[in-house]
Each structure stands twice: as structure tokens, then as C-alpha cells.
Specification:
- This protein is an alpha/beta fold and 204 residues long.
- 51% of the residues lie in helices and 14% in strands.
- The protein has nine helices and seven strands; from the N terminus they run βαβααββααββαααβα.
- The protein has a five-stranded parallel beta sheet with strand order 2-5-1-6-7, sandwiched between helices. Strands 3-4 form a two-stranded antiparallel ribbon.
- The radius of gyration is 18 Å and the shape is globular.
Length: 204
């Protein structure tokens, strides 16, 4: 048995990746949400709270990680960010492996990973789907978020692989700059194609 075709779903901030991930899930495709796993492990009694508190004293309380306070500690500090990632990334990888083990019978699974290219995750998936829209649409969406500033947006973009490069490296691109219905039609068509591809693979 070959196991599922592993789809890496990614996209820059504000491109609509979470919306597209929800469309995959609604169509019956198991989705591993890396960000959601991190939030759970950083929440009340979360598995990473003690380790994060030890590395960044005062960054947690009984509710879990104080995301704003921790964000201030690592924002713009590459060394601090690396120390945080050394705690978080191995834990997420273990969760992802467990998720895959649970869904070995599925034809497809989606790994929803925001920093797929930036952290090397693209090497461990079979297909890459990039969610994209125009730079202007992206900017409007992001700056409409609470507590977002042009400076913060610029900093986040500086940490991400440029959208044009992501599109070039993708196997498939989903355009979220169109209507929601149009995007959903594209996702459904892509799922059908990927399921056919999964069925036609040669067994190991």
C-alpha cells in the first residue's frame, strides 16, 4: 500500500489559505492544520507551555502562552525566534506524523503549513498547492485585521517566500482573488484530479 497522496497547502499571509483548507475538509479530505495544533499546544495546560515559559520567562499564565507578550519577545529577533522554533517545530512534526498514521487509508491528506517553503516542508509532500491572489487584494485583507499595521505587514512579508516564487514552485495554484464560488469550483476540480492521480499511482 502506498498510503495517501500528501498535499502541501501553503500561501502567504492574507491569501485565503484557511478558506481553501476548509473547502478541502468540507469535501472529505483530511486536513492537518499546523497553526491550529500550535495554538492547542500553547493553550491552557498545553504541551508546550512549560518549555516556552522556561525559555521565555513571563510569557505564559494559567491561560497558556500569552501570544502578544511572546510575540514582542521574538518579533525582529532572529535568535529568539530560532529558540522558539526549536521548541515548537519538533512537536508539530510529531503531531503531523500521528495524523498521517491515523489516515493511512485516505486517498489524499492535506498538510496546511503556512511556512512550507521557508522551513523545508515542501520536501516531504507529494504535491504543492499554493493559494494566491493579487498583491493589492492581499494588502487590503491583511490591513483590515485588528492590530495589523503596514510595518508589521511588511515585516511578515520579509520572512515569507515571495508569492511569485511560491507560484512558480507550485504544482497547482488556487486563485482566491475571484468569487468564493469560483474558488470553491476550482478546489473541487483539483480534488477530483488529485484523487484520480492518487488512484493511478504505482504501488510500492
Amino acid at each position: 500500500m502506498t498510503g495517501p497522496l500528501i498535499i502541501g497547502l501553503t500561501g502567504s499571509i492574507g491569501m485565503g489559505k484557511s478558506t481553501v483548507a476548509a473547502m478541502f475538509e468540507a469535501a472529505g479530505v483530511p486536513v492537518f492544520d499546523a497553526d491550529a495544533e500550535v495554538r492547542a499546544m500553547q493553550g491552557p495546560a498545553g504541551a508546550l507551555v512549560a518549555a516556552i515559559e522556561a525559555e521565555f520567562p513571563g510569557s505564559t499564565d494559567e491561560t497558556g502562552v500569552l501570544r502578544d507578550r511572546l510575540g514582542q519577545e521574538v518579533f525582529g529577533d532572529t535568535s529568539a525566534l530560532a529558540r522558539l522554533e526549536a521548541i515548537v517545530h519538533p512537536a508539530v512534526a510529531r503531531k503531523r506524523e500521528a495524523f498521517l498514521a491515523e489516515h493511512l487509508d485516505a486517498p489524499l491528506v492535506v498538510f496546511d503549513i503556512p511556512l512550507l517553503f521557508e522551513k523545508g516542508g515542501h520536501a516531504s509532500v507529494d504535491r504543492i498547492v499554493v493559494v494566491s491572489a493579487s498583491a493589492e487584494t492581499q494588502r487590503q485583507r491583511v490591513l483590515a485585521r485588528p492590530d495589523m499595521t503596514p510595518e508589521k505587514f511588511a515585516h511578515i512579508l520579509s520572512l515569507q517566500t515571495p508569492d511569485a516564487e511560491k507560484r512558480e514552485r507550485a504544482d497547482h495554484v488556487i486563485d482566491t482573488g475571484q468569487s468564493l464560488g469560483g474558488t470553491e469550483e476550482d478546489v473541487i476540480a483539483l480534488i477530483a484530479q488529485l484523487r484520480a492521480d492518487a488512484a493511478n499511482r504505482d504501488p510500492l
